[in-house]
């Protein structure tokens, strides 16, 4: 049976990984500066991660959410301690799309409203409401288009005010650093005014931290650079270092009721073990400090390359913008220099999303290769 052909594939077959490197079926070593869409947070095959999963699967890999699972409580408490998001509740699921789907559903439950405000170049997932709130008509099927969503420009505070004052908006959903869209950010004033408008208009303020969360921005969450308190925070990619896990942090003002949310696999024992190993490693190895140190070094080196027209993003969620499309550049980095990087909907942007424990020496390898390709 052939695979459904929806992914354009590079001719590389990774079979193992260690730290910031993956190795293909020919034994070739690749420096991974993309982490499979920012998923690899603590490095491939980190010993804490492999140990936690191995020990857990040898005891119990899965049971449903109909029973007690102390690992879920432990994970929730650890997220609260490291993120500083005190008092929130946690709902566990399996992916970023599922996290955003549940976030939007909660907002509609809480407010009794049905319209969503989202932003140009935003990406929130491929499920029903999440994809409707995504600014990409090519992935919105007619069945998704039934959702009531208004897409506005970033920094259009008058547009946000106008839409919220119509009284039917249940949620504003926003990435504080856009991922797929190309690392764009709004101003601090915009985020803070949107938050105030949500409060004034009985609208839930959803921070989509699926890609920017878990230390990638240089803080635990990217929204923490601003004076806002989201009603709902969606998380996923870096949470499990490759094991499928997502979650929604829910402000205590939103009351839980039996049956309002549910999932078969979300919060299973293996996922929680993976999630705890990631948080413990972030804490024990001071990885957020490393993010900020390496980010500063990366940006300083990037500024010395004249072909780079713009440096976007924060922390280790970075983009290098050129005055040409980067498709061929990425191929040369992969096939000639054995380095993985990422693209974006902005075809002139090279995305850099390495493990949070990447070193300056490994960044030097990248810039040496980049200069060779550019020159």
Order of helices and strands: EEEHHHEHEHEHEHEEEHHEEHEEH
Radius of gyration (Å): 20 Å
Instruction: State the helical fraction.
Output: 25-40%
Low-confidence stretches: none
Question: Percent of residues in beta strands?
Answer: 15-25%
Strand order of the largest sheet: 4-10-9-8-7-5-6
Query: How many structural units, i.e. domains?
Result: 2
CATH topological fold name of the largest domain: Aspartate Aminotransferase, domain 2
Shape: globular
| CATH level-four homologous superfamily name of the largest domain | Type I PLP-dependent aspartate aminotransferase-like (Major domain)
CATH architecture of the largest domain, by name, is 3-Layer(aba) Sandwich
CATH class of the largest domain: Alpha Beta
Count of β-strands: 14
Count of DSSP-assigned helices: 11
Major sheet: 7 strands, mixed
Structural class by SSE content: alpha/beta
Alpha-carbon distance between the two ends: 44 Å
Please sum up the structure shown.
Helices cover 34% and strands 17% of the residues. The chain has 375 residues and is an alpha/beta fold. Strand 1 (14-18) and strand 2 form a beta hairpin.
Provide structural commentary:
The chain is an alpha/beta fold and 375 residues long. The chain has 2 domains: 49-284, Type I PLP-dependent aspartate aminotransferase-like (Major domain) (Aspartate Aminotransferase, domain 2, 3-Layer(aba) Sandwich), CATH 3.40.640.10; 286-374, Aspartate Aminotransferase, domain 1 (Alpha-Beta Complex). The protein has helices at residues 35-38, 47-57, 70-83, 96-111, 128-132, 157-164, 188-200, 269-284, 287-302, 327-335, 360-374; strands spanning 14-18, 21-24, 29-32, 89-93, 115-119, 148-152, 169-174, 204-208, 232-235, 246-250, 310-314, 317-321, 339-340, 349-352. A hairpin with a 2-residue loop joins β11 and β12 (317-321). The termini are far apart.
């Amino acid at each position: 049976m052939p695979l459904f052909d929806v992914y354009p594939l590079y001719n590389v077959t990774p079979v193992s990984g260690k730290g910031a490197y993956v190795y293909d079926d020919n034994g070739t070593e690749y420096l991974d500066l993309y982490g499979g869409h920012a998923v690899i947070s603590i490095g491939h095959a980190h010993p804490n991660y492999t140990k936690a999963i191995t020990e857990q699967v040898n005891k119990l890999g899965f049971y449903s959410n109909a029973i007690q699972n102390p690992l879920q409580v432990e994970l929730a408490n650890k997220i609260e301690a490291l993120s500083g998001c005190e008092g929130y509740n946690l709902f566990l699921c399996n992916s970023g799309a599922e996290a955003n789907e549940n976030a939007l559903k909660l907002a509609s439950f809480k407010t009794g409203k049905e319209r969503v405000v989202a932003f140009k170049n935003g990406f929130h997932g491929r499920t029903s409401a999440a994809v409707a709130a995504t600014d990409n008509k090519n992935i919105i099927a007619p069945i998704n288009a039934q959702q009531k969503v208004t897409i506005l420009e970033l920094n259009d505070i008058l547009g946000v005010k106008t839409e919220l004052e119509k009284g039917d908006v249940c949620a504003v959903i926003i990435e504080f650093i856009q991922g797929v869209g190309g690392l764009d950010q709004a101003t601090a004033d915009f985020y803070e005014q949107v938050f105030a408008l949500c409060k004034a208009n009985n609208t839930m303020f959803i921070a989509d931290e699926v890609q920017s969360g878990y230390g990638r921005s240089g803080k635990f969450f990217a929204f923490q650079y601003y004076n806002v308190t989201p009603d709902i925070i969606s998380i996923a990619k870096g949470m499990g270092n490759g094991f499928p896990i997502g979650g929604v942090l829910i402000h205590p003002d939103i009351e839980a009721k039996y049956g309002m949310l549910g999932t078969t696999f979300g919060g299973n024992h293996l996922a929680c073990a993976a999630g705890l190993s990631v948080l413990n490693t972030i804490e024990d190895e001071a990885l957020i400090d490393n993010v900020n140190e390496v980010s500063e070094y990366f940006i300083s080196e990037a500024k010395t390359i004249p072909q780079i027209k713009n440096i976007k993003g924060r922390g280790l969620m970075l983009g290098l913008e050129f005055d040409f499309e980067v498709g061929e550049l990425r191929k040369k980095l992969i096939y000639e220099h054995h380095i993985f990087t990422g693209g974006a909907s902005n075809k002139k942007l090279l995305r850099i999303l390495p493990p949070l424990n990447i070193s300056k020496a490994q960044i030097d390898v990248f810039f040496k290769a980049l200069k060779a390709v550019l020159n």
